[in-house]
Specification:
mainly beta
Length: 119
């Protein structure tokens, strides 16, 4: 079955950077769009970024545009999220997800990795 395993979360100071990763198995990774979502305490899960398969087009939430970069390595079945200029508002559990279409629906989800940004 499909497994998505996030890693790389942690505690970082405001203004700092962090790269989180998501290793996928059980699917033909190169034919799936991949996405990052996040959920802060007391809030609903929200879209962060997605990357298409094939042309690798990327899409970002306005709140992270210019600060975050999504990328993928099909040889490693891994998707990354490089996060720069982090603020406390970026504190959340970050989830990766897989979909056959960049706009979703995202049917497979990882367990999440915690990112905490201190002020």
């Amino acid at each position: 079955q499909v497994q998505l395993v996030e890693s790389g979360g942690g505690l970082v100071q405001a203004g700092g950077s962090l790269r989180i990763s998501c290793a996928a198995s059980g699917l033909t990774f190169s034919t799936y769009a991949m996405g990052w979502f996040r959920q802060a305490p007391g809030k609903e899960r929200e879209f962060v970024a997605t990357i298409a398969w094939g042309d690798n087009n990327t899409y970002y939430a306005d709140s992270v545009k210019g600060r975050f970069t999504i990328s993928r390595d099909n040889a490693k079945n891994t998707v990354y999220l490089q996060m720069n200029s982090l603020t406390p508002e970026d504190t959340a559990v970050y989830y990766c997800a897989a979909s056959k279409a960049v706009a979703g629906p995202f049917a497979a989800w990882g367990q999440g990795t915690q990112v905490t940004v201190s002020s």
